[in-house]
Design a protein that fits this description.
The structure is a homodimer of 344-residue chains.
Chain A lengths: L11 H10 L9 E3 L6 E3 L5 E10 L11 H17 L4 E11 L5 H17 L3 E9 L5 E10 L15 E5 L4 H18 L11 H8 L5 H10 L5 E5 L3 H12 L1 E6 L7 H10 L3 H7 L5 E6 L4 H4 L5 E9 L4 E4 L5 E3 L11
Helix pairs in contact in A: 2-3, 4-5, 4-8
Chain lengths: 344, 344
């Protein structure tokens, strides 16, 4: 954080909004009215509007002890854009509401918004509105993302077909291992503040957690190749959980192969170091923000050129269940061990 | 609250979402995809999309000691619909995200959603998605409302003209007086729990605070009469603050007459009882969720039939400033004393 500390109360709510939006120019032709009125107006010119929202709460979804505010701002936007891409749509706008206690200075909020604007810039998205409020405790972030899609071109979770290939972008488990590392270092720091955190050679997994990207490139690639996924969603709770959503909503089963799961070398090394099973991290770790999609086997040749897409299995009849085949040749039922914020 | 207490953790996040949305049927033809996917898809069929969002935080925006959860659910929706109407648009969808600590049972959340659904029902709005999350402390509500408007028919704050009449719907100050009453009763209760709250004859002001409505009727009336406001916004922070927004954004001044301010008889009585000036309550009290709008003097005859619309003044040149004329014949500068959550 910078050295100056400006109290938020010195600006007031409207002053803060003006301050935060002072340099932001809208880029989307669809933005008719932006920040500064009761509501924003968007014209998608005949396209359908896609909308998603996420609530992120300090201490539940993020830990400011090891999350730089700029990264947090960036990620808050990304996790919502990821949902829009997962509908095969293009994000056009976000609204950003924050609740902040007076422990945050204007400079701190500026850092957060730097990340927000960086994500808007990179993904060509306009900030269309929002709300700033005091909070009694902690930092609260609520983002809504709006996108557009040509009528009927959206892709749901429920429309996979038997025999479809199951594909996943990028690699899995890295964000979970990054979280494991940072939680470990936090614990060490709290016990012995003089010990410097040991993050050497862990850039990859830390980056996977703190600065995820939304897979616009995959959506663009599929469109270029003329591949329309039959079902799609983003990987936020862990791929086991996501596969079960697609299976249940499509009324099908699936077969997934351990040997096909994409796991980065750095993630494997980290898993080994922490005594964790890399496959379990890949299956159940969340927050990778990759895309999982199904597609017709006929489209297989069109995607092989893209090393960022792995075919990890295929859809089966519902009666066959949701199965995982280990490298050792054993078959397991896939169970969702995704993150449950309400559990203990 | 009901007698049974079901822990939220017994349902999990997806279970809770399924539980909360189990009886909800979409009504809007524009709803293409609703709850249950990465994002919702809406087709406004050539109309423009209007979007607004609000973050409501326990202890900052509401006090559960005197706010029934059902009313809170209702009001959370209403305050957002009010913003959509204030753009001269029709709300079609909301997303609702909540953050809840484990002090809330499933039954308590059900009560909240009863209010949410009642508002959706009354205003013909679909719940299109949302998020449920754990919170570390208190109840957090984030609502986004989406609406539609014929291209170019939206009404901004910045487009008032010199000489336009300034109109306001309903009456002012009631919600603030309701809040004053409930805060007073809360204080008495905390000091002497055996004293029963004295809310007799205060239904009106309490209702203004706890169960506001959005002024769809006014928007419908104006459309019927062929009156297009030149500028409009909703009254959430107090009419002084709102008038200043319209003046500043339109580059104009205004003259407001005390004698024209609509104040309900019950609000006057309550103000007298509390030793408050009813006019000050009307000017600076927030949360009335009425509409303030400007319109051409030529349209005056078209609105006189509607007793729910008061003409309170007119727009002037910027140089004349924003003036308030008291009944006693004195002129004051209007200042925004609206609610500032970041104060103190």
């Amino acid at each position: 954080m910078s050295e100056t500390r400006t109290e938020i109360s010195s600006l007031g709510e409207f002053g803060l909004i003006n301050h935060l939006t002072r340099n932001f120019e809208t880029k989307q032709a669809s933005t008719v009215v932006s920040v500064g009125d009761d509501a924003a107006v968007i014209d998608h010119f005949g396209k359908q509007t896609v909308i998603t929202t996420d609530l992120l709460i300090e201490g539940v979804h993020f830990d400011l002890m090891y999350t730089p505010l700029k990264h947090l701002g960036y990620k808050s936007v990304i996790v919502n854009l990821s949902d829009i891409y997962a509908m095969n749509a293009t994000p056009t706008h976000i609204t950003m509401s924050i609740g902040i206690s007076n422990r945050f200075s204007v400079e701190a909020i500026d850092e957060f918004y730097e990340g927000v604007y960086a994500a808007c810039e990179r993904y060509n998205v306009d900030l269309a509105g929002g709300d700033t409020s005091a909070s009694q405790k902690g930092f609260i972030i609520s983002v809504t993302a709006i996108g557009e899609v040509a009528p009927g071109k959206f892709v749901k979770r429920s429309t996979a077909n038997k025999g479809d290939l199951i594909c996943v972008s990028g690699d899995l488990g890295g964000a979970f291992l990054g979280l494991t590392l940072l939680e470990r270092e936090k614990k060490i720091f709290l016990e012995s503040p003089q010990v410097q955190p040991d993050l050497e050679n862990e850039d990859y997994i830390v980056g996977r957690l703190l600065k995820p990207e939304a897979r616009k490139d995959i959506i663009d690639f599929l469109e270029d190749r003329g591949v329309v996924p039959t079902a799609m969603m983003d990987v936020s709770d862990g791929i086991s959980s996501e596969i079960l959503h697609i299976c249940r909503q499509s009324g099908l089963g699936c077969k997934i192969y351990e040997e096909k799961l994409p796991i980065a070398e750095d993630a494997r090394k980290a898993a080994f170091k922490f005594g964790l099973d890399a496959t379990v991290c890949a299956l159940n770790g969340g927050e990778d923000y990759e895309l999982i999609f199904t597609m017709s086997q006929d489209d297989y040749d069109k995607i092989t050129i893209n090393e960022e897409i792995s075919v990890i299995g295929y859809m089966t009849d519902e009666e066959e269940g949701c199965k995982f085949l280990s490298k050792g040749g054993n078959t397991f039922n896939i169970t969702a061990q995704g993150w449950n914020a309400f559990g203990k």
